[in-house]
Amino acid sequence: MDSTHLIALNVSSIVTIAIVTAGIGYFLPRAEVVDYKKLNEKKEVTAKPFTHPKLTNPESLWDNDWDKRQPLVESKSSGKIRNIFLIRHGQYSASEKDIDSEMILTEVGKKQARATAARLVNSGLVFSKIMSSTMARAKETAQFIHDSFPDVETVESDFFREVFPIDPVPALPVEYDFPRSDKFIEEVAAEAGFRKLFYRPDASQAQQVTNEIVVAHGNLIRYWLMRAMQIETRAWARFGLYNCSITHIKINEDGSVKAVSIGDAGHLPQDLVTQA
Fold first, then answer.
1. DSSP structure string for 171-209
2. Is residue 66 a part of any domain in this protein?
3. For residue 53, what pLDDT is reported?
4. If I label 154, which of 26, 39, 180, 229 is the partner at 20 to 30 A Cα–Cα?
């Protein structure tokens, strides 16, 4: 028997040990020889990537005219960019009756705000505007940042106040739920804030790249992120954001949007990392 032949030994009538000059193979009792070369040459792919059953048309996954500002006549892009830095406020004191003036930054919250201001300074970026919610905890956080950028315009807006943006899926525990009448109003407010803040740069933008800071709230930032990424907005409660974390959204002139970072809290030492 030459080296190309298979030498087989039957052991206990169950296992067949096959010895081949190229190596050792293990076969079922029938001792069928598998041609692995032909097997590897097969072009068929049996494993398919996961696709959500509702998303059957890939083209429908992105609406490039999401801000209703897509040019009617395509022209050469000048490559302008808007960078939006969404910052959640620092840790704050609770209020039994949700009185805003009582919900001010704790000492930890103040340290978080200072650390975030230092992080923005160290970025070396030139910021064109600091925007803030009109709620006390956000205004305080924004003030710490403004102290590091005294020449940058600061604007407060009710559009950036905390809201319950939309009923999440899965639903939140009952103790975290809001009255239906409140949600009816606040869902509209969340969407209005998004439309006011998120849009592509156009010819009216003087700078090639703008960097804008927005100090807002956890629910709102998570909702805005879902909207900006065109992901199902009811998923907003499936992840959390640390106090004074930074979420960086980049909007290009062609309407494309990228989440550069989400909930970045790397500038905070471990003892200042909180979510409440």
1. PPPGGG---HHHHHHHHHHHHHHHHHH-----TT--SSE
2. no
3. 58
4. 229
